[in-house]
């Protein structure tokens, strides 16, 4: 009995020693691991919640952390979709990143319609008295311009109205070979209008197909020709660039209503889409003076609407390489979008007949920096 008891005690002691050895080895192994050994999924989860400043610091830890930090880094905010009510003065703002809707009472805007947006500013027009003015809905600042009759011609501005460089530009074709160009700057007492001759036919497009890029206003005509206006030289010309080539079925489905124009980092981009057809994105090749079809957006996100379209980089990863359109589905919870990488609409099989949408219903606008109206 005593011998059996000694054997049991010896076996128990060996088991305890073995467990202690394993625990020591595991402890030593854990000591050898570093933060750089975190699984990618966990690392992404941590880094995506950091501020931009802390994200940049974390990216300096090692190559692995740098790759993940850059992938989840959010530098820019996406624009919000601002809705203009048919009645009343309650305006809604939809944030596609957070899928949230905010509301603001803006009685200053009653009786007006949006024309263009840039840098958080709206350019608006009151048809009743031909009033034209800038308005920032987030700080309620207003800057009035001289009265001017804006019917349905294309109109845009170059910079925020608080900048000395700001110029408002509008163009209307008088005939296929003559256009009337009017310009105005904040502080001017009147608009300046000059008629220009065209060597190539230029008929104003439906709604705004216009961007300001590298000091020039670029305008896309109804049939796809590109006009350029230099506000410093007050010079107008129609470029010898053949219109983008589109599938024949585009021409049979109101294709001209589903054209959008944006600028990104010096590039002129045009989006063609209609009904169930896959959107086609073209970029102007300045060296060859041709439109080339883009197979990828290289991380850029586009926000398209009738009145003004925008581009963004370094948005959350799930929003990159996507075109967001100015239509929200599913009880206001999701924008119609098209993924260039996946070659499909989201939600699946979603599309939109742009001929049915009121062009003055909404417009993309840059949100306040704190991304909140509360």
TrEMBL record:
InterPro entries: F-box-like_dom_sf, F-box_dom, KIB1-4_b-propeller. PROSITE patterns: FBOX. Residues 32-83 form the F-box domain. It comes from the Eukaryota. This is F-box domain-containing protein.
């Amino acid at each position: 009995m005593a011998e059996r008891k000694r054997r049991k005690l010896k076996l128990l002691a060996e088991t305890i020693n073995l467990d202690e050895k394993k625990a020591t080895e595991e402890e030593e192994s854990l000591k050898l691991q570093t933060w750089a050994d975190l699984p990618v999924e966990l690392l992404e989860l941590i880094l995506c919640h950091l501020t931009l400043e802390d994200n940049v610091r974390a990216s300096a830890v090692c190559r692995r952390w740098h790759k993940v930090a850059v992938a989840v880094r959010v530098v820019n905010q996406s624009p919000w979709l601002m809705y203009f009510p048919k009645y009343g003065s309650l305006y809604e703002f939809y944030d596609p990143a957070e899928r949230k809707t905010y509301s603001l009472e803006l009685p200053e805007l009653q009786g007006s319609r949006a024309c263009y947006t840039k840098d958080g500013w709206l350019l608006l027009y009151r048809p009743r008295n031909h009033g034209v003015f800038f308005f920032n809905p987030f700080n309620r600042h207003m800057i009035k311009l001289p009265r001017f009759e804006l019917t349905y011609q294309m109109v845009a501005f170059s910079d925020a109205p608080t900048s000395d460089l700001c110029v408002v530009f509008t163009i209307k074709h008088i005939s296929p070979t003559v256009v009337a160009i009017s310009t105005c700057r904040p502080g001017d007492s009147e608009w300046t209008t000059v008629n220009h001759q065209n060597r190539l036919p230029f008929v104003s497009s439906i709604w705004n197909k216009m961007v300001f890029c590298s000091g020039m206003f670029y305008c896309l005509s109804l049939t796809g020709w590109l006009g350029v206006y230099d506000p410093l030289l007050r010079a107008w010309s129609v470029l010898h660039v053949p219109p983008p080539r589109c599938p024949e079925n585009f021409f049979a489905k109101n294709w001209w209503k589903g054209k959008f124009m944006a600028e990104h980092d010096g590039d002129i981009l045009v989006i063609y889409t209609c009904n169930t057809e896959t959107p086609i994105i073209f970029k102007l090749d300045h060296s060859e003076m041709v439109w080339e079809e883009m197979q990828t957006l290289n991380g850029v996100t586009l926000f398209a609407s009738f009145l003004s379209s925008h581009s963004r980089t370094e948005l959350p990863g799930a929003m990159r390489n996507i075109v967001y359109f100015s239509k929200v589905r599913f009880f206001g919870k999701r924008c119609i979008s098209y993924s260039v990488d996946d070659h499909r609409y989201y939600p699946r099989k979603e599309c939109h007949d742009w001929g049915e949408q009121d062009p003055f219903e909404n417009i993309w606008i840059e949100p306040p920096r704190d991304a909140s109206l509360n």
